[in-house]
Structure formats: structure tokens, C-alpha cells
Amino acid sequence: MFGYVRPPLDQLPPEEQERFRRAYCGLCHTLRCRCGLPARFILNYDFTFLAILLSGGEEPETRCARCVASPLKKRAFCGGNPALDLAADESVILAYWQARDGVEDHGFLKGLRYRAASRALWGSYRKAAAARPEFDRVTREQLRRLSELEQTKSPSLDKPADAFAQLLSAAADEAADSSLRRILHQMLYHLGRWVYLMDAADDLKEDAAAGNYNPLIYRYGLTDGAWTEESRASFTQTVDHSIRLLATAYELWDFGCWTPILEHTIYAGLFQVGKAVLSGTYRAGRTGQKKDRNVEETT
């Protein structure tokens, strides 16, 4: 995943900031325990959001331990539970296949980092795939769809965005409650569509300069990677509509203690990230770009 789904922490009270940090750290500990040390390096906000959604409205028990990020002082974190286990396994599966996809899409030299990442994650991936074979199948299938669309240089936004949306919505398949499962399918579908389009917008100038496939280039004719006023307005309307559909599904369920974090993420955080991406002030692990002050790292 890409790390775009994050709450505006400066708008949350201290107790909710700490609750989110416990969930984030809990996923990190779960990745290490279930999938091995290399898996901790793929930790991101998107799957923390997924773990929160799958939690059923209750926070897992709080534990304390030292870790690599806090070697001297014990830090509180959410203890292991089925939601964290699921989020950990699925994040490893997705990260592994994205790395393999990167190997296929780049030449030998540019593909070295993807090859190294996939090798480092191989053992973690085998464990996760054994635990979640259906999500592994869907991930491979939808990433294959994306690859085919890239090879044909499809000008459609909907087709590649749908492939990633279908992939992410499959993360809800193991939710125990059938009503919650249907709601999460809708939420994660529209979230996946938004994430894919945000990543395309974030990479627009880089892809245009390198000659890489980006659906925005072909949809709006942005050969130099620069938005026109009309294309920016059209794209903003498209991604904001996905957030509104996500919010509509969200309102159908009570998410308990996680409600403040989820509401701030959906109704403020996603819009802020979208605005920052389009204005060029957002940075998702890329050097040379500013990071929006509302989406700073918490750990």
C-alpha cells in the first residue's frame, strides 16, 4: 500500500492520538510476530486503518514493550487480535506482489530495489499466503489486470482503479459479521479506488518525465505531467466522489471507540491528503517534496 490513508492528528485530542499510535505500533508488533522481522519495514497507515475497521469497534488489550523504535522505554501498543493478524498478513501479501510487479516493470538496474524487497519478503509472504490463500489469489489476479492495462496504455481511469478497488475490498472477506462484511466491502472498494488515483496523481510528473504508464496522462492528455485547470477540476470531482461513497457506507455501522479516528480520517484526512497531492506539498516517502503538516508521521 501507499500510506495515504491517515488521520489529521493535529485535529484529534491527545487521547485519540495515543489510541491511533497504539494501533499503529500494534500492527508493527503483529507483523514481526506473525511474519518475521523484514515484514516490519512495510508498516504503513493504510493497513492500520484496515485493522481499525476490522476491529469490531473495540480496542484490543494494551500491552507494553520495548522495540526498535523505542529501545530504552517501554511503549504501549494494541495486543494481538484477529483484526491485527488479518491486516498484517494482507499487507505482506500485497507488498510482496507489488515488489514482484516492480521487478517485471523495470529493467535490471532500476529493478534491483524491487528484487531485493521481494527476496527479503519471501519468507514472510509464504507464511501470510498460507494463512490467507484467497486474498493472495485475488491480489495476484487484480495486479495481473493492472499489468495488462498498463501494457495496452489504457486511457481509462475506471478500469485500473477498479482493479485495485476489487483487490482492497477483498480484505473484508474474513469479517465475521455478515452485515459488517458488506459495509466493509463498500468502504474498502471506494477507498481502494481513491488510493489508486491518489498514487497516480502523486507520480504524475515523475511518470511523465520517465515515459512510464500513468492513466492520468492518457485520460487528460497531460504529456508534460502538468495539470490544466479543467483536468484538475475533473479529477478532484472524481476522487472526492469516492470519498463521499466511502462515507455513505461508513455511516451504516457503529465503530465504537474508533469512531473519532475514523470520522476525522474520512471527513478530513482524505480530503487534506488529496489537496496536498494535487498542490505538490505531499510526500509519500519521496525525497525532494514537502510533507503536509497535517500528515506527519506519529512514530
Helical residue percent? 55-70%
Termini separation: 18 Å
Give the low-pLDDT segments: 284-299
The CATH C-level class name: Mainly Alpha
Number of domains: 1
Principal-axis shape: globular
CATH architectural arrangement: Orthogonal Bundle
Mean pLDDT: 88
Could you tell me the number of beta strands?
2
Task: Note the total helix count.
Answer: 11
Listing every helix as H and every strand as E from the N terminus to the C terminus, the arrangement reads: HHEEHHHHHHHHH
Cα radius of gyration in angstroms:
19 Å
Give the SSE layout.
Blueprint: H1 14-35, H2 45-53, E1 62-65, E2 75-78, H3 82-105, H4 112-131, H5 133-151, H6 158-169, H7 178-202, H8 204-210, H9 215-220, H10 229-250, H11 259-279
Antiparallel strand pairs: 1-2
Helix pairs in contact: 1-3, 2-3, 3-4, 3-5, 4-5, 5-6, 6-7, 7-10, 10-11
